[in-house]
Specification:
Rossmann fold, 3-stranded parallel sheet, 2 domains, binds tryptophan, 5 strands, binds adenosine-5'-diphosphate, Tyrosyl-Transfer RNA Synthetase, mainly alpha, 13 helices, two-stranded parallel ribbon
Length: 313
């Protein structure tokens, strides 16, 4: 028995990541995951609430796991698995659906936002928080590292645990959220928050040419010596003590500063990019299958207890 606490987090396979995702989410995860018994789950059934393209989803699943391996997650230190390969998740989600009320689920931000935009939410999006509760509670997770936007979902998982325990006796542990403390908001090339929706990103595995093209497009303010948008990205990959003399020497010379940033970003990205390119689909699939077999064992024994107390077994 390991004395470590259990950590679980889930990832939606949602396209190529950028350096904002790295410094805001991946890096803080890398900093802590080895201190726990860690589970890293690809939330492919959650993704079905929005993705309608099978080939794209299949590739997205592989690419998100490849990304985690390339940035340094070691499969020996984390159980990397796929939600859909552990059927107990959808089974437990159904049981939770039967315990919670419609008005309770109507409070969920993801659902409310969709409705507020005048869009129709599918039933999967509506019950999304109960599938996420199942993901977390099956493994007795103590902590769930997520971005701020997911805080409410952890609260739903706690509620699901409490409601179940209240109805059937102590079965599930109430998890805590762990809001990842990243570096704050990484700005994009236009100075707004870097986001895939704004087309202002520097992709995490960009080639040197792409890095150069994106960095050259960074919007600089013509007043003042230090181009803030360049510096804000630069200090993520090189210490401020090292940067001070460089920014003094090249004060006002934006092109030279951008060229230095291109070299520093490339030095930072290229080892990860090379790893990303060298990991084959087959290697990724092997990691997923091995992790999913481990996850299944844990989920299976937990579900046996659940089926017994609810009375179907
Ligand atoms: P995007 O805005 O590109 O769609 P997501 O919403 O998918 O990014 O974010 C995934 C994770 O990356 C979240 O945990 C979020 O906090 C983090 N993240 C995204 N953009 C940034 C950014 N510009 N700065 C810091 N963290 C970010
Ligand atoms: N809902 C999360 C997101 O969109 C992904 C997720 C699914 C998750 N299941 C989870 C996160 C369990 C943490 C724990 O980012």
């Amino acid at each position: 028995m390991s004395a470590k606490q259990t950590l679980l987090t889930g990832l939606q396979p949602s396209g190529d990541l950028h350096i904002g995702n790295y410094f805001g989410a991946l890096k803080p995860f890398l900093d802590v995951y080895k201190d726990y018994q860690s589970f890293l789950m690809v939330a492919d059934y959650h993704a079905l609430t929005s993705v309608r393209d099978g080939a794209k989803l299949r590739q997205g699943i592989i690419d998100i796991v490849r990304t985690y391996l390339a940035v340094g997650v070691d499969p020996k230190d984390a159980v990397i698995f796929k939600q859909s390969l552990v059927q107990e998740h959808t089974e437990l989600a159904w049981i939770f659906d039967c315990l919670v009320t419609v008005p309770f689920l109507q409070q969920a931000h993801a659902y409310k936002d969709k409705v507020a935009k005048g869009l129709e939410a599918n039933a999967g999006l509506f019950t999304y928080p109960m599938l996420m509760a199942a993901d977390i509670l099956l493994y007795n997770a103590d902590v769930v590292p997520v971005g701020e936007d997911q805080r409410q979902h952890i609260e739903y998982a706690r509620e699901a645990a409490a409601k179940f325990n209240n109805a059937y006796g102590e079965t599930f542990k109430e998890p805590k959220d762990m809001i990842l403390k990243g570096v704050g908001v990484v700005p994009g090339t236009d100075g707004q928050k870097m986001s895939k929706s704004y087309g202002n990103t520097i992709p995490l595995f960009a080639s040197k040419d792409v890095i150069a093209e994106r960095v050259m497009s960074i919007v600089t303010d013509s007043s003042g010596d230090k181009p803030e948008n360049v510096y804000a990205i630069h200090k993520l990959v090189r210490s401020e003590t090292e940067l001070e003399p460089i920014y003094k020497e090249y004060a006002g010379k934006y092109k030279a500063l951008k060229e230095t940033l291109i070299d520093d970003l490339d030095a930072f990205i290229s080892p990860m990019r090379e790893r990303y390119e060298s990991i084959t689909d087959e290697q990724v699939i092997a990691v997923i299958e091995e992790g999913s077999a481990k996850a299944r064992e844990i989920a299976k024994s937990k579900m046996e207890a659940v089926r017994a107390v609810v009375g179907v077994a």
